[in-house]
Amino acid sequence: MAYTNEKDIKARIAGVRDTRKITNAMYLISSTKMRKAKAALDQTRPYFDSLHVEIARVFRTASDAESRYFYPPEGGEDLPGAYGYLVITADRGLAGAYNLSVLKEMNRQRGLHGDNRIYMVGNYGRQYCRTHDVAVEEDFHFSAQDATLHRAREISAILLDAYESGKISRLFVIYTDFCNGLQTNVVTAPILPFQRAQFLKSAKSKARNRRDAEEFEFYPSVTQVLDYIVPSFVIGYIYSALVDSFCSEQNARMTAMDSANQNAEQLIETLTLEYNHLRQDAVTQEITEISAGAKAQKRSKGGSGR
C-alpha cells in the first residue's frame, strides 16, 4: 500500500507496534501455560506407567484372562456397531494449522467407518462441525483449556458408559502428540478395546527386576481386577492426550505469534523506510521551493534596477 502523507504512515506504524505488543504477550502467555501443563503431566505420568506395567503382569500370569475392555485372546480388529472418536481441538484459533490438522484427520477417520459418534473437545472443533454439518454428541461439552485429572475423569466416565452400554464398539482418540519442542504429530490412537500385545510388548522393556517376573494371585478374580484397573488407565490415557494436545496448541500458538512478531518487525522497517523517504521528499521539495522563490525574487530585483 502506497502512502501519500506522513500522518497516515505514522498512524500505520503505531498500529503495527500495538499489534506486536499483543502478539508478543500471547507468545509469553502460551510459553508459560505450556511449561505448567508439561510439569503437571510429568508429575502424574509415573503412576499411569505403573498401571501399564501391572496390567501387563496380569496377562503374563493369566494369558487367557478375559475382560470386556480387551479383545479376546484370539484377537480381532473389525467389530460391528458404531465407532466412537474423542477429538481434541482448541477453544480458539490463532494457532497456525493446529486445529485444521486435527479436523482433517477426523474427517479421514469418519470416511473409513460409516457409523460413528464424535465426542468433541474444544469450542473450535464444535464450531467447525456446526458449520460443516458434522454430527457430534450434543451433550458432550468440555473445554480444551487447562487440562485436569478431574476433567479427564468426567470424559472417561461418559466414554466408558457409552462403551459398556453398547453405543460404541470401539473407541479412538484423535489428538496432537507433543513429541518435543520442535515437532508435533496428529495421532489417532485406539483406546478400547485394548490389544493384549500392546501391553506385553512395551512392558518387557520395563520389567527389569525379579518382582515383575513373579506370578501373583488375584482376588476376587482376574476379570474383576482388570475391570477395576483399566478405567483408571483410560483416565490416565485421556489425561495424557488432553495435556499433550494443550501443550501442542500452546507450542503452535507460540510459533504463530513468533512469526507474527517477525512479520511486524519487517513491516515496521518497511514503513519506517517509506516514512523517511516521504520526509526526505518533503524536505527536498521545500528546499527546491525556497531556492526557486529566492531566485525569482533576485531576478525581480535585478530587473527593477535596470
How is this fold's topology laid out?
Blueprint (H helix, E strand, L loop, with lengths): L5 H56 L21 E6 L9 H15 L3 E6 L1 H9 L17 H16 L5 E8 L7 E8 L3 H9 L5 H4 L8 H84 L1
Parallel strand pairs: 1-2, 1-3
Antiparallel strand pairs: 3-4
Short recap of the structure:
With 306 residues, the chain is of the alpha/beta class. It is built from seven helices and four strands; from the N terminus they run αβαβααββααα.
Describe the protein.
This protein is an alpha/beta fold and 306 residues long. The protein has two domains: 6-23 and 259-299; 31-254, 3-Layer(aba) Sandwich (Pyruvate Kinase, Chain: A, domain 1). The chain contains seven helices and four strands. Helix 1 (6-61) crosses helix 5 (196-204) and helix 4 (149-164) crosses helix 7. The longest helix has 84 residues, at 222-305. The chain is elongated and about 120 Å long. The model has no long low-confidence stretch (mean pLDDT 79).
Topology, number of strands: 4
CATH class of the largest domain: Alpha Beta
Residue share in helices?
Answer: 55-70%
SSE pattern: HEHEHHEEHHH
* Helical/strand content category: alpha/beta
Mean pLDDT: 79
